[in-house]
Amino acid sequence: MLIKIPARHALKESAVTDYSVYLQRREFIKKSLATGGAIGLSAAGLPAIAGVDLSAYQKAADQALAAELTAEKSITSYNNFYELGTDKKDPEKNAAMLKTEPWSVTIEGECERPGMIALEDLIQTKDIEERIYRLRCVEAWSMVIPWMGVELGPLLQRFKPTSKAKYVEFTTLHDPANLPGQRFPVLDWPYVEGLRIDEAMHPLSLLVVGLYGKQLPNQNGAPLRLVVPWKYGFKSIKSIVKIRFSETQPETSWNLSAAKEYGFYSNVNPEVNHPRWSQARERRIGEFRKRKTLAFNGYAEQVAALYSGMDLKRNF
Ligand SMILES: Nc1nc2c(c(=O)[nH]1)N[C@H]1C(S)=C(S)[C@@H](COP(=O)(O)O)O[C@H]1N2
Ligand SMILES: [Mo]
């Protein structure tokens, strides 16, 4: 096992699928934290990066979203992970084809400390915290997911990005011998994604190693994936093996595949429709009626300032 996800181990695997049980465990964790119990989740206030301290916000958001959690079974059996197949059920079925051990990440480009780092040195158990975020796929479905991970910003700072680091590029594992999807030219493999450096440093940006208090299932992008909750799901690149700081805007897989449909920013925006469908509403997995899609997926208060002065219809 590469990364030990703290807490939760007291419960049997079989019990964890039921999210009322999950909610009880959250209560247990909160109480343990209050009494100073050594549970391993970071209880301290989150660091104030980019001048924003989100710790109070984060606690309130977690409380509000806990009631809306998508069932664990849905999160792990309805996936987009084209390396493991293009049907929503393929990634779970083919999950064992993704080899996650050992795993290391290469750090390159505009930084003072490039190199290759083993996953267990990159992510330390004591830094792992839980964040409940909405996930909005560009295909107009959504979920609410309790992720386990670390803030991306402080992690990137360890490699001392230079003043030329204006963007960050992420690359997924390229392993066509094992990953069946990479034997077909569905996308230009490996999958690549990118963020502007201030987006990457925003305290909502997370590098994820688990969900529902457990190791990240392969189908969800084990052992390490990005989660950027105010952007369409495809920005949240899975199974990351490389992080590169760059001066110029990196190319991204979906933009290369269809530039008119998938922009670099891809902020969730109910007012900018996909050329082939409306983005005004979404189907929350597990619900029958569609809901209204929220600007920046409900995170406008936290992130809108990143885009002040930008035409978000042009920079979609
Ligand atoms: N490498 C890689 N990352 C990926 C994808 C993919 O096909 N390959 N799909 C993206 C899309 S479209 C979405 S909606 C999310 C889905 O994440 P989930 O399956 O954990 O819900 O992963 C994103 N990350
Ligand atoms: Mo997606």
Helix share bin: 10-25%
Q: For the CA atoms, what is the radius of gyration?
A: 19 Å
Largest sheet geometry: 7 strands, mixed
Q: Give me the CATH fold name.
A: Sulfite Oxidase, Chain A, domain 2
N-to-C order of helices and strands: HHHHHEEHEEHEEHEEEEHEEH
- What overall form do the CA principal axes indicate? globular
CATH class: Alpha Beta
CATH architectural name = Alpha-Beta Complex
Query: What hetero molecules are bound to the protein chains?
Result: ligand MTE, molybdenum atom
Secondary-structure blueprint of this entry?
Elements: H1 13-16, H2 19-34, H3 55-66, H4 72-77, H5 90-93, E1 104-109, E2 115-118, H6 119-122, E3 129-136, E4 141-151, H7 152-157, E5 167-172, E6 192-196, H8 197-201, E7 206-211, E8 214-215, E9 225-227, E10 240-246, H9 253-257, E11 281-284, E12 291-292, H10 300-303
Parallel strand pairs: 1-10, 4-11
Antiparallel strand pairs: 1-2, 3-4, 4-7, 5-6, 5-10, 7-8, 7-9, 11-12
The structure holds the ligand Nc1nc2c(c(=O)[nH]1)N[C@H]1C(S)=C(S)[C@@H](COP(=O)(O)O)O[C@H]1N2 and molybdenum atom.
